[in-house]
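User: Fold this, then the next.

Assistant: Folding the first:
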Amino acid sequence: MTLLEADGLRKTFGGIVAVDDVSFEVERQEIVGVIGPNGAGKSTMFKLLAGFHKPDEGTVTFDGEDITDLAPNERTQRGLVRTFQIAQELTGMRVMDNMLLASQNNPGEKVLAAAANTSSVREFEGNARDRAEELLKFLELWDLRDEYAGNLSGGQRKLLELGRALMADPELLLLDEPMAGVNPDLTDRLLQRIMDLRDERDMTFLVVEHDIEAIMRISNTVIGMHDGGVLSKGTPEEVQSDERMLEAYLGGEV
């Protein structure tokens, strides 16, 4: 049931070791939370998984395939999709258009098919609109479908970012600080949507987040990082009671 495996990942920048011998697995249909103090290596590890950095050592395996050398778009096509800490929506486009633009493998992007307005293009666009409508209703953004994305609040933009990622129909969604800058009411809504996607649609998530309380609420497994390595891994209860993680956050010796 393993969907994603990191094995011995190491990444250095000059003389600085950002990630050092990181190994873990993500099982299907679970939420894995990644926590750690600033400088723990969370962001670099996340970029290694998403393909934005190439590891100096180690491998990334997704659904049984070694994807270590694949570009980010090639990983997306295989079902490994990421969001960004700062939402990447197109502010000058409406919410619905942002969703439709995120559809994958649109035959209308090919010049001849688009010019001919073939039935396959029309069918794809109809299905994409149906999918976007379903997701906007699920995320409670349907009433904002005709609003320009630039007019949304920070929390609404995070929900739109999640919706755009879901348009790619991912098997595993990598969430980068999804609660950053989101007010408490929208945080609760976002967390509930993530849990609903796991429970009702069998999706898998890996979430890097500073909000420890949120991570403990939604995660099946928590990975605690410190100084570029995995310091603790287990259930939320196990990681919360790990004295080494407490020391790492409080600045004591590990």
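Now the next one, as you asked:
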Amino acid sequence: MNAQNSINASATARTAIPDDKDMLRAARDLTKDISEARPLVYWSDMLGSAAVGYAALAGAILVDSVPLAIVLGVFSALVLYRALLFIHEITHIHKNALPGFRTVWNLLVGIPMLAPSFTYEGVHTLHHARTRYGTAEDPEYLPLALMKPWSLPLFVLIALLAPPALVIRSAILVPLGVVIPPIRKLVWERVSSLSINPNFRRRPPEGDLKKRVVWQEALATAWSWTLIASIFLLGWKPFLVALAVLSLTAVLNQLRTLVAHLWENEGEPMTVTAQYLDSVNVPPPGVIAEIWAPVGLRYHALHHLLPSMPYHSLPEAHRRLVGHLGEGSTIGKANHTGMWSLVSRIARSTMRSN
């Protein structure tokens, strides 16, 4: 009973955290000169990651050596994971900052991996809404630290099913939805977004997003049919190897999601500072975080302060804020040492709360 009271008190204290106005002011004033996206960085990083990832995937499919195929497959999953996470930048970047970037990314990465940008656009921004974060209306929040201990491994392992589920969605459910409106409504509301809140229901698309959904869905369906047809032309190996690589990528992303926040809010609205402290930075000197949280996501808490800051500027923004405010200030309280320490913390919290 005392442990449960302690957890409840901690959650209540977090929602009652007032905004640190010095931190919010510094975040605004000290980063104005690094707030523009640098096209060369974005294009070279995304195109290079996609090219290397697909080359490694081709190698994993073509080589006869099983150990070498595994090495190439793991490497491909890591590099394609980096390419895939540019979907996060596409959601936040100003639409005129990188002309053509969204379209090219969709053609080279989003559609081949059956995760077009519409699955994140119009959804992820709800996670950043001042009054939605951590509430039942947040599509990307679950109080994982307050749930049953078995929910954590289930949360991670269910990602293994994501790639085959995406194939089924695009190859079967989307075409059925074209002729059967109730299926179309169900698919859009329930399985058209990269969200983790099972109670989230997506609203119909509007404006430019509605147009993008049409062509992205059409191409994703055509690609999914091509993948299935390849089984009859090339055999099972290429399809299964690609599916295994994408499953590994999905699990890695789910692990990153698991440690992106402390997940200690029970559904009450939070101040911006409370949201920051419920989120996670894993700054240097460690280098491993750049592998499992690439494209700026190792600074996830800072991203909640500066959601439109381009990923290549986040390390410098963090350095400036820590230098100005000090490690002992609020800005330093969201810093953590790595994935496993965060997993352990969340796991211990589930045990105490239960």
